[in-house]
Amino acid sequence: MSASVAGPIRLPTVRDLASERRVMLAFLIWGFSALMVGAAIGPLQALNYGGIDAYPWLRPVLQSYYQGLTVHGVLNAYVFTFFITCGLLVYLPVRELGLAPNMLLWRACFATMAIGTVLLLVAMFDNSSSVLWTFYPPLKGSPLFYGGMSLVVVGSLFPLPILLELRARWKARRPGELTPLVTYMSTVTMLMWLLAAGGAIIELLVQLLPWSLGWRDTVDPIVGRTLFWWTGHPIVYFWLMPAYVSWYGLLSKQIGGKLVSDPMARLTFALLLVFSLPVGSHHQFTDPGFSPVWRGILTALTLSVALPSLITAFTIGLSLEYAGRRRGGRGLFGWFVALPWRDPSVAAQVLAMLTFIWGGAGGIVNGSWQLDNLIHNTTWIPGHFHITVGTASAMTFMGVAFWMLPHLTGRRLLSRRLSLAAVWLWFVGMSVFALGMHWAGLHGVPRRAWVSFLPHAVYERVYGAAHLPLTLVAIGGVVLWAATACFYVVFLGSLFTRRLDRPEPIPFAQAFGGSESFAIMEGEPVGIVAHKQLSPLARALEHMGALTALTVLATAAAYIPIFWPFLHNVTRAPGWVVW
Amino acid sequence: MSDAAHDPFEDAFHRAAERHERAWVFVAVTLLTLLLVGTMFFVVFDYGVVVRTDSFRADPAALPAAPAGLVQTGPGAYSVQMTGHLWAWTPSPLHVPQGATVTFHVTSTDVLHGFQIQGTTVNVTAVPGITGSATYRFAHPGTYNIICNEFCGIEHQAMLGRIVVEPATP
Asked: Cβ of B129 and A222 within 8 Å?
């Protein structure tokens, strides 16, 4: 225990802890409920690619494939991920630091996003806004859709001030020490998201909301699209970084080992902050309107953003190996087999990582300018993001839920076996689905197209060559249905099981060379605390303000030349409601 | 676990980890650099894949005056104004002689569309208000499908077109 503590520590009371747990549980339930609806619709889209059109039977709930796809994308990509992240990235630091957060702000975060979700649901289910999750103008959704989206995005920024205040309070008490790892990673993630969200907020509040309310007649499509991708690329790191928080900050403990490098975890997050922001327009390699020179620079920046993930592969891989060898694993792969695969939370996260290796490799193809021409907007792209956000992030969040539900409710997990079944089915289903999607993309099958609605002869003529991969897509979708069913039996069932004898602790990991936390939770020490010997790298990375300023500069440098021609050549496009 | 308790296995593992970590970062940076050099080489070497900007216009519906259909611009070189609109490509079917190098000037008069010729590198976003272009040489005869790959409304899946490459007469 460090002697540098200044003044008395006000430890959270039992009532504080209980109310924090309740709010976290609310985030978890709301987020996973969104995924439940979104994931239930998903396999219909997979069947669509297999040539099976289920939509005529779904009226009046869903009018079309495109309406279903809008619901699927918005609920899974925004609502699910935002709720889990905004809960987790406050709750974990709060517990790690042993301080009470600003509960009012945290509850306001929940309320704002929840109201936004309700507006989005109304706008999507009445088919007034089947504009898909990218909502590109001049397709024109209802004001409820853009209003709901604005609330969800703005609400998701509330954790940042909560974290900055917590960190400042902690640092004031322990001058000269490094921010504990989970708090560091969470704060950097939210700083990244603050800068990233700017694009969507400007697009929604300046362009789309006034236009959909009729205050303005026209919209500039390319400006909307570019603003969207300013947010739309870094958002993938807002999906991924919370999963990394669990991999770096918790998983090593769950597998009975240690995190092999705390400074590398910090470096990864700092690099993700800097590099994820300026690269959004690589989603626009095939768009006219800005100079090829910037596309080349975007390619270089995009490949740079692979570096932190490659570092993660090393650090986490080695942490797995350390634990595996400690558990008696021998030989080249024995350590991998020796991991505690019977623990569904561990199985979920390790399988998520395996999938992410392919996801990352595919991402490098997407980011390579030349190769992107072949696969841009084909099924390759959704194939890619279903094994990144759809597995690496989603399955990690499921893994977190498996320990967190018992931790929050004090009730046992309904069934370990069923949890394992959910995880393995998700892994197999998503792998088969993604293989089919990537492969079909190489045959030029476009993403998000209601191909099963085409006359059969046309479907065969244009996509017949992709018959095998498209069949894999459909099979993967059906397996995912089974995975979803298993998961939600466990998730919902675990809210009503019998009580545990003693509370489930948070598995905060310990790093090599790190000591355990001073923070106390119900009588036991938790969390990673600063190193005895401060690593110069980690010390340099403590300057989050400087990192943020650098990111702002890099982002401005990347975007000013891209926006410049658009601002000098304004297009006035009227809106279209054509679904 | 106290910090004082040194564990020989952990210490040895830690030392090995630090050595390999440096090697890994070096390998990763080298790999990414080579990938960058590779992709840029192909782009520069095959500049036709690059989407270039032709012109902007304020009113998406007001197309710039251009001759309809395929226009010969030089020996074996052609250009065509390709317009996406709800829900068709104009002109389609487009007849092209084998061996022709065709520059597609692509735009949209209403919402976003995606101009993709299946089985080729041609992939251009049809943006309302901007005309962009890409070039491709049709070396083999046959029929190519034009596929809209950007969501554009309820008939998006049916927004298909055709390019017929006529075999060269001997």
From this structure: yes
Cβ-nearest to A373 among B106, B110, B123: B123
pLDDT, tens digit, 9 for 90 and up, residues A13-53:
888 889 999 999 999 999 999 999 999 999 999 999 999 99
Cα–Cα distance measured from residue B121 to residue B135, given in angstroms and rounded to the nearest whole number: 9
What CA–CA distance (Å, rounded) separates B95 from A257? 66
Q: Which amino acid is at A34?
A: A
CA–CA separation, A457 vs A437, rounded Å?
22
According to DSSP, the residues that pair with B114 across neighbouring strands are B125
- List the single best residue of B18, B35, B39 to mutate versus A (max A Cβ within 10 A): B39
Strand, coil or helix: what is A64?
Answer: coil
Burial class (CB in 10 A: 0-12, 13-18, 19+), A545: exposed
Residue A306 has pLDDT above 80, yes or no: yes
Catalytic residue status for A72: no
Q: Beta strand pairing status for B113-117 and B142-148?
A: antiparallel
Q: What is the pTM of this model?
A: 0.94
Which among A21, A72, A233, A283 is annotated as catalytic? Answer: A233
Query: Catalytic: A467?
Result: no
ipTM: 0.92
> Distance of CA A81 to CAs A167, A529, A557, A560, Å?
24, 28, 29, 30
Per-residue pLDDT 10s for chain B (170 aa) are 444 457 888 888 888 888 888 899 899 999 989 988 888 888 887 777 789 999 999 999 998 788 889 999 999 999 999 999 999 999 999 999 999 999 999 999 999 999 999 999 999 999 999 999 999 999 999 999 999 999 999 999 999 999 999 998 76
Strands B71-74 and B77-85: antiparallel
How would you write A429-476 as a 3-class SS string?
Answer: HHHHHHHHHHHHHHCCCECCCCHHHCCHHHHHHHHHHHHHHHHHHHHH
Give the three-state DSSP class for B134.
Answer: strand
Measured in degrees and rounded to the nearest 5, phi and psi for residue A521 equal -130, 115
Query: Which amino acid belongs to residue A63?
Result: Q
Tell me which chain B residue has its CA closest to the CA of residue A311.
B25
